């Protein structure tokens, strides 16, 4: 070949900056995304996380088949679900190693901080929009969350 390219393109290694790949991986962690892909001047870089922790949700109730006896019905949890207002990483306490803002059984008032969501290196307090008692917390400290994802139940 006269253009200076190697005869075996499968052995050609693209010039990818490892620091750029690390920055993309950090961006995944900061935003809670599971994958990101960037293409520039013909070089494509894809960074993905595997095995991201997922919160345990109850499976939806199966539809009843006509004529079948209904299964023992469990009482639906009473209360208000506090949902994530953004994509980010949840922190249950104000600092690493600090006690959480709230625990199941704690009474909360309208406007009280329940947890923090870090998004794009900004710490965002998530306040309660009702007064009541924390019934259940659906997320763990340091867990990535999506917009609208249930965070906790307040009765």
Q: Please write the CATH class name of the largest domain.
A: Mainly Beta
The average pLDDT score comes to: 77
The figure for the number of domains is: 2
Give start-end ranges of low-pLDDT stretches. Answer: 52-72
Approximate shape: elongated
> What is the N-to-C succession of helices and strands?
HEEEEEEEEEE
Number of helices: 1
Biggest sheet details: 4 strands, antiparallel
Q: Could you estimate the helical fraction of the residues in percent? A: under 10%
Work out the strand percent.
25-35%
Q: Would you tell me the structural class of the helices and strands?
A: mainly beta
Features:
elongated; 155 residues; OB fold (Dihydrolipoamide Acetyltransferase, E2P); 2 domains; mainly beta; 1 helix
How would you explain this protein's 3D organization?
- With 155 residues, this protein is mainly beta.
- It folds into two domains: 13-48, no CATH class; 80-154, OB fold (Dihydrolipoamide Acetyltransferase, E2P) (Beta Barrel), CATH 2.40.50.100.
- The protein is 9% helix and 31% strand.
- The protein has one helix spanning 18-31, and strands at residues 35-40, 43-48, 80-83, 88-91, 107-108, 113-119, 122-127, 132-137, 144-145, 150-154.
- β1 and β2 (43-48) form a beta hairpin.
- The protein is elongated.
């Amino acid at each position: 070949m006269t253009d200076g390219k190697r005869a075996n393109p499968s052995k050609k290694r693209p010039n990818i900056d490892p620091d750029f790949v690390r920055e993309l991986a950090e961006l995944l962690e900061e935003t809670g995304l599971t994958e990101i892909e960037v293409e520039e001047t013909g070089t494509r870089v894809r960074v993905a996380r595997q095995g991201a922790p997922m919160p345990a949700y109850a499976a939806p109730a199966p539809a009843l088949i006509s004529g079948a006896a209904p299964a023992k019905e469990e009482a639906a949890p009473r209360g208000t679900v506090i949902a994530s207002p953004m994509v980010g990483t949840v922190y249950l306490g104000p600092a690493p190693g600090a006690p959480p803002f709230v625990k199941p059984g704690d009474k909360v008032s309208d406007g009280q901080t329940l947890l923090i969501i870090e998004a794009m290196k900004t710490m965002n307090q998530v306040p309660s929009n009702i007064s009541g008692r924390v019934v259940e917390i659906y997320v763990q400290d340091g867990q990535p969350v999506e917009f609208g994802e249930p965070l906790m139940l307040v009765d």
